């Protein structure tokens, strides 16, 4: 974490020195993450951004009684994930002050909560251009811009009746470093091509000020903040309805797991099965569901999406031993299905259950109403993927691999942040033996969807391992 990073429970704009590093904020407790007081939903909204923009956003957000704000200030792009991570499970949604921190978090895939950011177009840019014109009479053509697409600025000027060329614009997708932006603006200024910079990134603004270059900072307009907050509240209302969706949990248990070698009588076995059923009944009560037998050793629990989301920490972990009534050793596999109807949820639960069986004993998997598959819950390698559409099915036919295998592979590469992998790494991620992983990579190479990019040798005396570059 950068030395100036700070998590602020209460944010004070301006003074950047002497800010106290505060402890993790305390949140109101409730059964769900969204609380309901009367007819008002309560959304725990993380506000993340630079000091100057965050003060504007927080002032607007505090006017909405639906929001409980958790402000977080950052001073360096490298510390964004470190600041977000401790609060990831405590916040319902995140609102970022700009595109850069938003993109860093989105690309990290570490946060499952909905993410939003305040755009800096429209009134935000009008105000900045007006300031540049009235304070220094600088023509638009003598300014360098970042973040925006050139056409965005030209369209804004056309609406204002201003016809001037916009020669210097550095547009970028996703995240970018303050150093890269400041170098861009500073080089143009030193060459005499510009008189000032217009930047949307606070850290670049501070760096250019340090270099002595005239710079104007684009701050979020109140109207833009209000528009995003309205979207956040509507999303919260939609999620509240979504949490009431039907969820089905399909569990297979082995009651004999708790038997001693001396237990052979049918009466003893029956008592063990009854004990397991009682544990399942108590667990079903905790998730506010009803238990139904689905054959020898298999049970189905009908409950709601919100209840299972709560007990699995947003479908990321397996409930604790206490919450599952010490059923850990007895669970063979668990599948959770989400659907718009009980029938649809049960079908999804069946799919999730089959994926769990393939993932090893005790695995929990989830299939959501959009067909997305997630799991195994609680494992270090937790993937979320979709079986995709026609293009993926065509690839499956072409390679001889299943669509599920290709989807998992895409999810693994995305999680790793690279399209290169070797067989032992792939085997670890997919829960298969290295021989099977090599077969997958060889089949992809045969049809031109993979190539050998190099070799690695983790053990000096061992045989080098091929590293494959995947094209999916």
From TrEMBL:
<dbReference type="InterPro" id="IPR043128">
    <property type="entry name" value="Rev_trsase/Diguanyl_cyclase"/>
</dbReference>
<protein>
    <submittedName>
        <fullName>Transcriptional regulator</fullName>
    </submittedName>
</protein>
């Amino acid at each position: 974490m950068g030395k100036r990073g700070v998590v602020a429970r209460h944010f004070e704009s301006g003074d950047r020195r002497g800010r106290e590093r505060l402890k993790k904020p305390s949140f109101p407790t409730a059964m769900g993450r969204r609380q309901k007081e009367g007819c008002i939903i309560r959304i725990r909204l993380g506000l993340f951004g630079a000091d100057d923009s965050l003060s504007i956003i927080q002032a607007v957000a505090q006017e909405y009684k639906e929001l409980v704000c958790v402000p977080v200030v950052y001073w360096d792009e490298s510390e964004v994930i470190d600041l977000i991570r401790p609060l990831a499970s405590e916040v319902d949604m995140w609102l970022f002050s700009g595109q850069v921190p938003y993109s860093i978090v989105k690309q990290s895939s570490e946060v499952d909560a909905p993410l939003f950011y305040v755009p800096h177009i429209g009134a935000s840019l009008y105000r900045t251009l007006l300031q540049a014109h009235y304070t220094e009479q600088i023509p638009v053509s003598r300014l360098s811009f970042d973040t925006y697409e050139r056409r965005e600025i030209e369209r804004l000027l056309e609406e204002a009746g201003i016809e001037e060329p916009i020669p210097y614009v550095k547009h970028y997708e996703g995240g970018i470093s303050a150093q890269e932006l400041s170098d861009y603006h500073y080089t143009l200024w030193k060459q005499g091509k510009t008189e000032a910079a217009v930047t949307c990134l606070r850290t670049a603004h501070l760096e250019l000020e340090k270099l002595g270059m005239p710079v104007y900072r684009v701050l979020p307009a109140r109207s833009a903040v209000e528009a995003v907050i309205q979207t956040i509240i509507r999303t919260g209302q939609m999620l509240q309805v979504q949490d009431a969706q039907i969820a089905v949990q399909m569990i297979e248990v082995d009651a004999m797991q708790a038997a001693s070698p001396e237990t052979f009588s049918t009466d003893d076995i029956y008592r063990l099965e009854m004990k397991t059923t009682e544990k399942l009944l108590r667990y079903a009560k905790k998730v506010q569901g009803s238990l139904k037998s689905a054959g020898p050793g298999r049970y189905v629990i009908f409950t709601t999406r919100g209840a299972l989301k709560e007990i699995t920490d947003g479908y990321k972990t397996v409930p604790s031993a206490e919450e599952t009534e010490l059923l850990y050793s007895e669970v063979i596999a668990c599948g959770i299905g989400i659907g718009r109807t009980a029938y649809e949820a049960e079908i999804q639960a069946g799919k999730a259950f089959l994926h769990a069986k393939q993932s090893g004993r005790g695995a929990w998997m989830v299939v959501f109403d959009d067909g997305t598959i997630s799991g195994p819950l609680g494992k270090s390698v937790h993937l979320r993927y979709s079986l995709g559409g026609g293009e993926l099915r065509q690839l499956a036919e072409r390679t001889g691999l299943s669509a599920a295998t290709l989807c998992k592979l895409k999810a693994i590469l995305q999680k790793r942040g690279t399209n290169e992998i070797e067989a032992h790494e792939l085997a670890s991620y997919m829960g298969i033996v290295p021989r099977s992983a090599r077969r997958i990579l060889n089949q992809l190479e045969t049809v031109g969807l993979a190539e050998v990019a190099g070799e690695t040798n983790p053990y000096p005396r061992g045989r080098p391992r091929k590293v494959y570059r995947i094209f999916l």
